[in-house]
Amino acid sequence: MKIRLIVAKNIGFCFGVRRSVETVEKLLESERKVYVAGELVHNERVLNELMKKGMVLFNPHSDLPKDLKAHTVVVRAHGLPPNIVKRLEDHAGRVVDTTCPIVMDMFKTAKGLAKKHDRLYVLGDPNHPEIVALRGYVEDPIVFKDRNELEKILKMRNDNPNLKVALISQTTKDFMTFQRSLELLVKHFKCVSVNRTICDITIKREEELGELSKKSDVVMVIGSEKSSNTNKLLRIARENTKAFLVSDPHDLRRRIPEFSDGMVVSMVSGTSTPDQLVDEMIDELKKICEEVDVVWSR
Ligand code: SF4
């Protein structure tokens, strides 16, 4: 079987996730055990490898590990509420905060907007760690996961249209949903401030995927089903063509019946997919298919 494989330009870890993972790797070179507050990255494979080297995950919102004082705690890229960071600083040997600067900017923007407005609307997944952290910066943000939910919330609250409201987003939400949500808010309220706090890196991935999916027979999205960012890419790809999620080379082998001779296959990934895994997927495809014409997007 011969296939043409187009590898996305924007693929592998984003800089925020890479920074967190590399920080933990570096610490593990000199420390036997390193604690991480929450799941470092939504990728089981990366987590398993680091756990073998001494990384220990714990829930910072619950009871703290008894030996925390003797160890370093890393705050992951999604960030934590300030009161939880303070609690860690009081109980850990030291705290290394790797909150992504783009996420931190979003928290600061939210805080500033909340002070000047009557309501802060946030497009986000209520249980996503970034939104959990945001609640530590802003009191009572109105969080909605998509336009439909926003519509229901607006009907239910029936707020005065003269209220001053602001809209922001979780950094990994999609731009189209943000835009549609803004249109809805503008219909209801007379004064809406908006700050597009979506990470440009994720927007670039969406735009590139939009183009690739139009010229592909199938899109392979590499990542974990636990990653909201990866699931979003899968949804976008499916608007134009067939698409599936693969987590590792073994998973890819299961998908081979979906390939056929002469196909154009595009490869993209979520921001929590390591570059090494992308290379392994390409190697696996080369083993499975007789001929793979690899095209690297530039
Ligand atoms: S997706 Fe963007 S905001 Fe989120 S961790 Fe990566 S670089 Fe930071």
Topology:
Elements: E1 2-7, H1 15-30, E2 34-37, H2 44-53, E3 55-58, E4 72-75, H3 82-91, E5 94-97, H4 101-116, E6 119-123, H5 129-134, E7 142-144, H6 147-157, E8 164-169, H7 175-188, E9 191-194, H8 200-214, E10 218-222, H9 228-238, E11 242-246, H10 249-254, E12 264-269, H11 275-288, E13 291-296
Parallel strand pairs: 1-12, 1-13, 2-3, 2-4, 4-5, 6-7, 6-8, 8-9, 10-11, 10-12
Helix pairs in contact: 6-7, 8-9
The site of iron/sulfur cluster has 14 residues, from helix 1, helix 4 and helix 8.
Features of this protein?
single chain, 298 residues, alpha/beta, Cobalt-precorrin-4 Transmethylase, domain 1, Rossmann fold, five-stranded parallel sheet, 11 helices, 13 strands, flat, binds iron/sulfur cluster
Structure description:
The protein folds into 3 domains: 2-12 and 200-296, 4-hydroxy-3-methylbut-2-enyl diphosphate reductase, catalytic domain (Cobalt-precorrin-4 Transmethylase, domain 1, 3-Layer(aba) Sandwich); 15-99, Rossmann fold (3-Layer(aba) Sandwich), CATH 3.40.50.11270; 102-194, 3-Layer(aba) Sandwich (Cobalt-precorrin-4 Transmethylase, domain 1). Helix content is 43%, strand content 21%. It has 11 helices and 13 strands. The strands form 3 sheets. It has a 5-stranded parallel β-sheet with strand order 11-10-12-1-13, sandwiched between helices. The longest helix has 16 residues, at 15-30. 38% of the residues are buried. The model has no long low-confidence stretch (mean pLDDT 95). The structure holds iron/sulfur cluster. Iron/sulfur cluster binds at residues 14-17, 77, 100, 102-103, 171-172, 199, 201-202, 271.
